[in-house]
Design a protein that fits this description.
mainly alpha; 30 helices; two-stranded antiparallel ribbon
Length: 658
Amino acid sequence: MASGTEPTGQAATVSDERLRAAERFIEEEEGAASRFGGALEALITALLVVMSLFHLYAAVSIVPTLTLRPVHVGFMLLLVFLIFPATPRLRNRLMWYDVVLALLGVATIVHIVWGGDDFWDRSTMPDRIDLVFGVVFVLLVLEAARRSTGWIMPAVVLTFAAYAFLGPWLPGHWAHRGYDLASMIGVMYMSLEGIFGTAIDVSATLIIMFTIFGAFLQHSGAGKFFLDFSFALMGGRRSGAGRTVVLSSFLLGGPSGSGVATTVTIGTVAWPMLERAGYDRNSAGGLLAAGGLGAIISPPVLGAAAFLIAEFLKISYLDVLQMAIIPTCLYYLSLFLMVEIDARKYHSAAVETRLAATAGQLARRFWFHFLSLVAIIGFMVYGFSPLMSVFWATVTAFVVSFFTRETAMWPKKLIAALADGSKQALNVAATCAAAGIIVGVVGKTGLGLKFSSIVIAYAGGSLLLTAIYTALIVWIIGLAVPVTASYIICAVIAAPALTKLGVPDFAAHMFIFYYAVLSEVSPPTALSPFAAAAITDGDPYKTTLQSWKYTLPAFLLPFVFVLEPAGAGLLLKAPAGVEWWSVAWVVATATAGIAALAGGAQNWVLVRCLLWERLAMIAAGLLLVYPHPLADTAGLALLGAALLSQWLRSRVAGGAAA
């Protein structure tokens, strides 16, 4: 598809060197896959296509759970060992032991499938062969996680495994009776409570289907259309550069659910435009990272963790999408306010863009890409299950691609989309398999209840302190492991602390989800800001601080979910006894709080803030996001005083300029 918009002027392109540096951060998130040629590449592509076809078949046909989950993990082990090298220096080289490990992974799954029901019935008394295969299987899962996500995830898993074995020797509340190798292998390898548990169930159904759907959108040209449409619609205005980043991050990132990839894709095109609009390197990188972060919290995908929320809570995925609507709107409201303030701070002029087509022309020509995007929601509203909805949305994307010749998914594009769909799911599948070990240990030892009791005790029974401690725990764990793993770990060890104090389970899980996502912009794993800094040639840590400025107002919002019953209404699921007018008031005050925090973080509204104005807006924002009548009154008073002062000073400044 021809490019719809293109920034003009100096620094109109991002150098290949910067682009390669940014792509390294995508590889850090998704794994540094090898690239082969010839027959080996054809073989791996064929295996990836078969994996996608198997899961497409499983979406519309009945594949037993005891078959689907092991086969999914088997595909993951086979392909991870073939595609991801043991060390970076061996990239693009397939070693003999990679093949051995891949075949061992397949053998451990064949042992399960061949054993049938008898295999699962032996979970309480595994025989010697089961133990051998089980130990090999667990070690292979850990190695697959290491290759695709790094050392930290396996190290965390091994810490939990050690806890299971060392229970009798641990002090105080942490002690338990301890478990031997046979009992742990029975749980991890021979039941649906360990590696083949909830996380792999979601990976084998919704996650891989959504990665296939995202690959179909990308190869049909939908991703490029969304980017072009955003530039054409928002360009040419004083705040157009910032608005373009915000809108394109929503349209492009929503279907992909990948923060780093969205940041790099948008940044390579938008950075020259931001530079000409007056953004410095670090501020531009911070905005790009904040836009990329929106990909993880925006419907229709919300990142892989959103599917796990639905499974843990035993609710429909449509309910999760519903809960994300208002928080997502408030997040993007915060970003839009920030970029409007940026336009005033940097005295931005409208950035000239060379338009191959207007937004209207692009929409009339490629309108069918919007159909692909909304199809998932449409099918779910009509009554289809989430799995069937994404299946038929994928079919829709394929069919409508033939509406124009340049987007048609002929066999070459179709094969590439099927291969990419499974390839993008491999690192998530490896993470989910490894996280299953943690879930199994927590369930076997009762660690979740022990941990929640300890947190509540330290908080003295205070819900506010418990929420703060929980947020810190989720954030710290998120610094070490990917968002998906962070959510899984904290859902089983931290969520019970909130629910014990009366927080609805859905609010507790959404609270944990949002703080797990915050790790995307937190050092040392701040991949999105670091990737943005590589593109803009900014300082990675200053860029990270700037991304915090853009995102932090919205990340105070989760406290509204948990501190007051009416606050849970932000998730459009008001608890019993809470009137909707109370929910509407909470939404209104939270919106005002987000706006106040945006102004305080930027140190600007109409003119540069005085110190007391900035402090008043920050205090007002904090008070307004705390759902209590006294806090609302004080917050509105402070915000009103600061805005009145800003208005009076802007009039004086305007008169002086005249």
